């Protein structure tokens, strides 16, 4: 979930935390029991149907009174669902082609407001990504497994118009210098860079310094449940309090819906 209808970092965080708590109630009603905790300390998905999941999250957003102020972002991790032999993806219990998966993503973007879709396709499906960028005008196509914060891969992505942006992870490429090189290339070529925390991360993760110091529009974080995730949110609020010009909450220029 991505808050966008707000005028402060503090309120954006308040919105996200409130919806996360309400989502627990919505899932309990849907399941008939409390939801399980999943990776990154979120809730375990109660369905393999993305539309059902988005509907449940929208219900939590509406229940908090934030309709039209919080959008969605998807991390599909499609390399995990890709079958190399058949060159197809597992979607809702059946195998589908690259073209079918892109068409389904287009349907989702037309039904729901999506700020970005990450890792829509397999990490080696370069031609598919180039098709997706053209087919999905209502959202930003972002690479993570495709680009792995690698400058050569970002250069290839730019040349082939494979993505609109990438997830920036310093410990993915190996060094802060290499991560900064990737960021500078992306900035020069109008590609969005999204700093991201990592599963199993720690307090004082350098990604927070990247988010504030590089003045990115927003950062990707996990569910507000574990200590290190909550500390990341506290970091943003401290940075906002000390820097009157801080505008990490303002993503209006990025919205395509």
Write a concise synopsis of the structure shown.
This protein has 257 residues and is of the alpha/beta class. It is built from nine helices and nine strands.
Q: Can you characterise this structure?
A:
The protein has 257 residues and is an alpha/beta fold. The chain has a domain at 1-69. The chain is 44% helix and 13% strand. It has nine helices and nine strands. The protein has helices at 9-31, 50-63, 98-111, 126-135, 151-160, 170-173, 176-188, 206-213, 227-242, and strands at residues 2-3, 70-75, 82-83, 88-91, 94-96, 114-118, 140-143, 165-168, 192-195. The strands form two sheets. A six-stranded mixed sheet has the order 1-2-6-7-8-9. Strand 7 (140-143), helix 5 and strand 8 form a beta-alpha-beta unit. Helix 1 crosses helix 2 (50-63). The longest helix is centred in the N-terminal third of the chain and has 23 residues, at 9-31. 35% of the residues are buried. The mean pLDDT is 93.
Q: Distance between the terminal alpha carbons, to the nearest Å?
A: 15 Å
Helix content: 40-55%
Please state the average pLDDT score.
93
Q: What is the CA-based Rg, rounded?
A: 18 Å
- Sheet of most strands: 6 strands, mixed
Q: Approximately what portion of the residues adopt beta-strand conformation?
A: 5-15%
Order of helices and strands: EHHEEEEHEHEHEHHEHH
Instruction: Kindly name the structural category.
Output: alpha/beta
Number of strands: 9
User: Based on CA inertia axes, which overall geometry fits?
Assistant: globular
In which order are the strands of the major sheet placed?
A: 1-2-6-7-8-9
* DSSP summary: helix tally: 9
Low-confidence stretches: none
């Amino acid at each position: 979930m991505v808050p966008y209808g707000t005028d402060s970092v503090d309120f954006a965080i308040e919105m996200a935390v409130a919806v996360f708590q309400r989502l627990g109630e919505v899932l309990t009603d849907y399941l008939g029991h409390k939801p399980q905790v999943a990776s990154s300390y979120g809730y375990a998905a109660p369905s393999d149907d993305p539309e059902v999941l988005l509907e449940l999250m929208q219900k939590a957003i509406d229940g908090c009174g934030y309709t039209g102020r919080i959008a969605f972002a998807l991390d599909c991790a499609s390399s995990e669902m890709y079958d190399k032999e058949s060159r197809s993806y597992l979607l809702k219990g059946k195998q589908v082609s690259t073209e079918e998966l892109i068409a389904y993503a287009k349907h989702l973007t037309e039904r729901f407001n999506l700020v970005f879709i990450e890792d829509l396709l397999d990490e080696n499906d370069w031609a598919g990504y180039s098709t997706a960028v053209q087919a999905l005008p209502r959202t930003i196509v972002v690479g993570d497994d495709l680009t792995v914060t690698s400058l050569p891969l970002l250069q290839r992505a730019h040349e082939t118009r494979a993505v609109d942006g990438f997830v920036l992870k310093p410990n993915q490429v190996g060094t802060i210098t290499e991560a900064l090189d990737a960021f500078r290339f992306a900035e020069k070529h109008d590609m969005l860079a999204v700093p991201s925390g990592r599963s199993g991360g720690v307090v004082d993760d350098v990604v927070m310094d990247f988010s504030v110091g590089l003045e990115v529009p927003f950062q990707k974080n996990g569910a507000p449940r574990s200590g290190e995730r909550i500390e990341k949110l506290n970091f943003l609020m401290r940075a906002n309090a000390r820097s009157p010009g801080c505008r990490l909450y303002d993503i209006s220029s990025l919205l395509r819906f």
